[in-house]
Amino acid sequence: MWFRALIVLLWLGVASPGQADYLAGMLAFARGDYLTALVEWRPPAEQGQAEAQFNLGVLYDGGLGVERDYRQAARWYQRAAEQGHAKAQFNLAVLFANGLGVERDMEEAARWYRQAAIQDEVEAQFNLGVLYEDGAGVVQSDVAAAYWYRLAAYQGHTMAQNNLGILFANGRGMSRDPVAAYAWYALAAKHRNLKARSNRDRLAGLLTPQQLAEGERMAAEFEKRYRSWPRD
């Protein structure tokens, strides 16, 4: 079910040199002094620094150093998201998808997932694939679902690999290809995805030895590709 994938991931931003308040907040956060981090990050956040805005969102989202307040989290995530901060875009999408601090709005969730996904945020790519597969907040499209799953799969996202295998196995969004389905299942199973392991074993009983060998070869090729995926 798609909503199981929509989990708030709390990311911490990267320090920007020359900004004392921000750096002091980072040090406070690292030692678990979240209240001080909140105090230190607020001035640069108010001045428009996207990383500080995002990090304030994280604190309010997680109830770190302050009472949990999804409305404040959404406010700060949105300010950072509007500046192109990919992780803030992703977390804001999660809040819209779950109606936390904002009115539940799957179209807004899809919009922000897309903004993060085009910046190679792997969880956003996967969640956008889920939305397209289910037609939640977007026009249902197995072709689009396969596209976003594939991008996430090549970054090593095992649920995307499993879901892409399901689309191949059923000929949804692409030509039916049980060998490719097996390859994606096998790759995800290798990295301990239990659903993929079950799907792989079930499909293996329907394939010839030659097809199984080809599936294993394809899985190795897929793994090489995602290991070489460009990273920031």
Topology:
Blueprint: H1 20-30, H2 34-46, H3 50-62, H4 70-81, H5 86-98, H6 106-117, H7 122-134, H8 142-153, H9 158-170, H10 178-190, H11 194-204, H12 209-227
Helix pairs in contact: 1-2, 2-3, 3-4, 4-5, 5-6, 6-7, 7-8, 8-9, 9-10, 10-11, 10-12
Count of alpha/pi helices: 12
CATH topology of the largest domain: Serine Threonine Protein Phosphatase 5, Tetratricopeptide repeat
| Backbone CA Rg | 20 Å
Question: Could you give a short account of the major beta sheet?
Answer: none
Describe this protein with a few key phrases.
232 residues, mainly alpha
Please tell me about this protein's structure:
The protein folds into 2 domains: about 1-135, Tetratricopeptide repeat domain (Serine Threonine Protein Phosphatase 5, Tetratricopeptide repeat); about 140-230, no CATH class. It is built from 12 helices and no strands. The chain has helices at about 20-30, 35-45, 50-60, 70-80, 85-100, 105-115, 120-135, 140-155, 160-170, 180-190, 195-205, 210-225. Helix 3 runs antiparallel to helix 4, helix 7 (about 120-135) packs antiparallel against helix 8 (about 140-155) and helix 8 runs antiparallel to helix 9 (about 160-170). The two termini are about 30 Å apart.
Compact overview of the structure:
67% of the residues lie in helices and 0% in strands.
